[in-house]
Amino acid sequence: MSCDEMGARTAGRGMRPGRVAGTVGLLMLALSLGGCGTLLSGGDKAVPTFDLSAPADFNAPRRGTGLLVVGPPTALAVLDTERIVVEPQPGQITYLDQAQWSDRLPALFQARLIESFENGNRARSVGRAGDGLNADYTLLSDLRAFGIRTYDGGPVAVVEVSVKIVGASSGRIVAAQVFTARAPAASTSGPDATAALDQASDQVFVELVRWASSRF
């Protein structure tokens, strides 16, 4: 049935005698026309979605034959989301309106970090925590910053992650490092902001993989 026919029929019901019939008819008319309005307007449009890439064409050193598994990164609630962080002032957090990541940031970061190890020729010595591998080491990470800062000189992508390598048998931290990278963003639009964050995260991935690979 078309929207015009629905409106006409429902309006007809609203004209019947009796308070109850009239009230029901008017309510149905409002619902019918409201639904037609949604169909005509097309409803809410999908938010543009962006992904991170993993760096390729680089080599990582091989220190030994150990197996390392990459655990899921930890992050505060403001980063544990698909939304893209913007810092307009120090200590102030907001998000881009028309952009989002393809997954929660910690899950996306973990996937691209593992891929970076694989691209650095460490595919046979790195896996994902929880996959049942008999690992020698676990790489733990904490996302400290991953967003666009718009103060102090314009938009810039900032990525900072704290990393620890823990021995599986001893449970002790055998190495630790903080990695930070920045990349200028042309604007705070979704494409420009995510391109800058992708560039900064690529730098972190390469440095992290090379650092970790020299220790297992």
Describe this protein's structure:
The chain has 216 residues and is of the alpha/beta class. It folds into two domains: 3-41, no CATH class; 49-213, ABC-type transport auxiliary lipoprotein component (Rossmann fold, 3-Layer(aba) Sandwich). The chain has four helices and nine strands. Strands 1, 2, 3, 4, 5, 6, 7, 8 and 9 form a nine-stranded mixed beta sheet that branches. A hairpin with a 5-residue loop joins β8 (156-167) and β9. The termini are far apart.
Summarize the topology.
Blueprint: H1 3-14, H2 19-41, E1 49-50, E2 68-70, E3 74-75, E4 83-87, E5 94-101, H3 105-122, E6 126-128, E7 137-149, E8 156-167, E9 173-184, H4 190-213
Protein name: ABC-type transport auxiliary lipoprotein family protein
Pfam families: ABC_trans_aux (PF03886)
Keywords: Lipoprotein
| Tally of DSSP helical segments | 4
The whole-angstrom Rg is 26 Å
**What's the number of structural domains?**
2
CATH superfamily of the largest domain: ABC-type transport auxiliary lipoprotein component
Strand composition percent: 25-35%
Mean pLDDT: 85
Low-confidence stretches: 2-44
Instruction: Give the end-to-end Cα distance, rounded to a whole number of Å.
Output: 68 Å
CATH top level class name of the largest domain: Alpha Beta
CATH topology of the largest domain, by name, is Rossmann fold
Categorize the overall geometry.
elongated
Overall number of strands: 9
Structural class from helices and strands? alpha/beta
CATH architectural category of the largest domain: 3-Layer(aba) Sandwich
The percentage helix is 25-40%
Largest sheet: 9 strands, mixed
Order of helices and strands: HHEEEEEHEEEEH
Protein name: ABC-type transport auxiliary lipoprotein family protein
Domain ABC-type transport auxiliary lipoprotein component: 52-207
Keywords: Lipoprotein
Pfam families: ABC_trans_aux (PF03886)
